[in-house]
Amino acid sequence: MSIRFVNVSKSFGPRKILQNISFEILKGEILFILGKSGVGKSVTLKQIVGLMKPDEGDIYLDGAPISKLSLEELAVIRSQCGMVFQHPALLDSLNVFENVAFGLGTPQYMKTHPTLLSQEAKKSVVIDKLKRVHLTDSILERFPPEISHGMQKRTSIARTLAPEPSYILFDEPTTGLDPITTRAITDLIFELSRELKITSVVVSHDMACALSIADRILVLDQGEILALGTPEEMRKSKIPLIVDFLSETLFQEDEITQKEVK
Amino acid sequence: MRKLSGKILSSFFHEVGSLTHFFVLTIRTFFRTQGNSKAIMAHLSTVFSRSFSTVLFAGVFVGAILVLQFNLMLKNFDAQIYLGGLNTSALVREIGPLIISFLLAGKIGAFTAAELGTMRVTEQIDAIECLGMNPIQYLVVPRMISIIVGSQFLLILGLIIGILGAMGIASLFCGVNFLQFSSSIPRFTGIWTLASGFFKSLVYGIIVAGVACYKGYTASGGARGVGRAVTQAAAYICFYIVIANFLTSYFLDFIHEFFNLLWGVHTA
């Protein structure tokens, strides 16, 4: 039970985004994918759920080669593999309840969970998932533009959790959020991984966040894997890009400490 | 120069090919999934609420303009008795479907392209796909069907209003009363004219729906990309409708002549 990249390459026109990368994401771990903007972090995630296809190589999810699957087979894979997007990506025309319950109404889900078809059953699942992301049922009837950006992000995580996936892919889950909400979402990813045994792949720029909760960190640069290791190994790394990321993190931590002293 | 024209032609055929593939995919999804009547009705109501007043307004004035132009020519030949028939025939056969489709392109086509384009660039469509729902089935089919069906109903409304507006103007400014106006209508406007008008309107409706949904669905590149999708949708719809107008007119004339030869009678 894992996600495996085997010699994956991806280009957009003349731009080579990923070049022959291979790695494995282990069951139950939190893997952070770090790197500068435009190095193919989001492309890596989108290839796992089949939103993009690699030009060469393949990605195997629980042994199934993603790029060779039909749409129907892909739907089965997607029911086990949720994705939280950079934007909250909630449907504006649906309220919070309908958004979170969206995944419970898909043909694939109804095939495997016939007992959850009633509205009451759906409601109890939705409330449970909202509680899991520290939201209350008071926002059930509200529409996405009527709640804060942080709440939208949490709602989108609740929507991803509703069909009970084994894997969750987070695409920059804390971008544009204040430090408190960032911390809360980081803790939430950790909780989900440890309590629900969900395998989490997190794309981020945030080294501090990665160091605090990741089991392993993968650093991408110029389409290649620059480093893959535990947070401890990253702290000891002498690779310039990783040192830059670490020094930025230490600078931020120093600033916070100084403010707390004042 | 040859290289440039070759590039333009190749991109035109690529565009038409992609559009046709998207349309076929949508229709196939519609028949495979039996559509979604609730969503189709909701979108149909959006099509009506957004276009109703414009169609009413434009219908009256298009009918009025046509009747004034026809009157200018017919009175030189002392043939105002044919004013109602000629005006209605032109409205039903040509001007009505064309104006309604241009209005739909501006009011609904642009709106649909912007709505789907925004959903694309904010990853809502990707999210729907990831949750195991087919976005073509969930988003495109209801919009496309409602625009195509809506265009037919709006044509009926526009034609009725246009003819009534023309009648009013003919009686007020051209000295042709309601009875005189309506008496010549059956002579110029028969089943064939009606069928031609509705056939053209159906083709234009398919173009508006197909291009708007395709441009929105394939938008990329943030707010700028959505803007580009909306502009392209409006421009391409007009462009394709003008081409379709020529082709359908030619095709319908051919069929008309064929039937006339077959049965030896002239049908209006």
Could you characterize what this model shows?
The complex is a heterodimer of chains A (262) and B (268). Chain A has 262 residues and is of the alpha/beta class. Among the domains of chain A are: 25-41 and 167-207 and 215-262, Rossmann fold, CATH 3.40.50; 90-164, no CATH class. Chain A has 10 helices and 10 strands. In chain A, the strands form 2 sheets. Chain A has a 6-stranded mixed β-sheet with strand order 6-7-8-3-9-10, sandwiched between helices. A 4-stranded antiparallel β-sheet of chain A has the order 2-1-4-5, with helices on one face. Chain A is globular, with a radius of gyration of 19 Å. With 268 residues, chain B is mainly α. The model of chain B has no long low-confidence stretch (mean pLDDT 92). At the A-B interface, helix 2, strand 6 and helix 4 of A face helix 4 of B.
Descriptive key words:
heterodimer; A: 262 residues; alpha/beta; Rossmann fold; six-stranded mixed beta sheet; 10 helices; globular; B: 268 residues; mainly alpha; 9 helices; 0% strand; elongated
